[in-house]
Each structure stands twice: as C-alpha cells, then as structure tokens.
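Q: I'm building a small set of examples for a reading group on sequence design. Run inverse folding on the following structure and report the sequence directly after it, with nothing in between.
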C-alpha cells in the first residue's frame, strides 16, 4: 500500500539516551578524529562512562548520519554544505532547542 521510505532516519525527533556530558565527550573527540583507534575508544569510554561498544556504535552512526546529510544536500543542488562536525545545521546538543525524547531506565 505505502511505499518504503528512502531512509529510516529522516533527521527529525532525535532521541538521546546518553547524558549530555557523555555526548559532549563523544562530539569533542569526533571534531578532531572521526575514526578513533581501539585505544582511543577505550579512553573515550572511560571519560564518558559508556562501554566501548556504545562508543564504537555512536561513531559509526554519527559518520553515517553525516554522510546522509551531505548526500541529501548534494542531491538537492545546494552549493553550500551547511552541516558541520557538531551536527546538522549547526545544532549543538546542549544549547540548541530541538525536540528530544528522553529515555528513562
């Protein structure tokens, strides 16, 4: 009946289950290196309080989302890529207002 979506992630209604402090450690490192080594992942996991698997998955997902956003902008004919390493369209996870789903555990 309904066509499949082009992608599962459409950039809206982002849900964060990590604490702001943990995300800021991840983003801070991402700005300097998108592909951390295993020893760097271990260091990030200690600083952020996350497991190494969570750190690895976050980097993998972040790189994928950045590629998707850039691809969509190229396809739309945009000459200027508006994304930066912090997130989509200058979004900052702590200071920017945006709908957020809170995960309770």
């Amino acid at each position: 009946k309904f066509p499949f979506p082009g992608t599962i992630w459409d950039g809206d209604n982002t849900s964060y289950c990590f604490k702001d402090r943990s995300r800021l450690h991840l983003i801070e490192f991402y700005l300097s290196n998108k592909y951390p080594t295993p020893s760097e992942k271990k260091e990030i996991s200690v600083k952020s309080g996350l497991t190494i698997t969570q750190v690895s998955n976050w980097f993998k997902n972040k790189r994928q989302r950045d590629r998707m956003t850039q691809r969509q902008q190229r396809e739309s004919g945009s000459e200027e890529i508006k994304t930066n390493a912090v997130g989509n369209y200058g979004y900052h996870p702590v200071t920017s207002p945006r709908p957020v789903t809170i995960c309770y555990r």
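The two ends are 36 Å apart (CA to CA).
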